[in-house]
Design a protein that fits this description.
- This protein is mostly beta strands.
- It has one domain: Beta Barrel (Lipocalin).
- The chain has no helices and eight strands.
- An eight-stranded antiparallel β-barrel has the order 1-2-3-4-5-6-7-8.
- It starts with 8 loop residues before the first strand and ends in a 10-residue tail after the last strand.
Amino acid sequence: MRIDYDGRQFRKLEAEDGVVARYHQEDDLVWADFAGGPVRRGNVAGVCSPEGVLELAYTMVLDDGEVIAGRTVNTPYTGPGGDLLIREEWERYGPHARSGTSFLTEVTTEGGEGDGC
């Protein structure tokens, strides 16, 4: 699945916490900024494979001042309605180390969905 992530926005499928990430892409380099809900500020940066799989490092600062860092591998797939979804396998480092799986859905705005290739 060839995907251009530039300008696309995603949020966790299972959470309505207001955290939205806006992605940017130049060639295989991908990065995003995110905030909302309990996240004061967050960033991801990494690379995109020809199949659209993202390998990213992330950092974020929560409202309570906790600083979190980790890595994630995000695999895109098509949802039942034809929408772009991402399976996110993440690992958090440090004193609160843990790992898990999240699912992201694309956030579209009036008159503008991300362009796929």
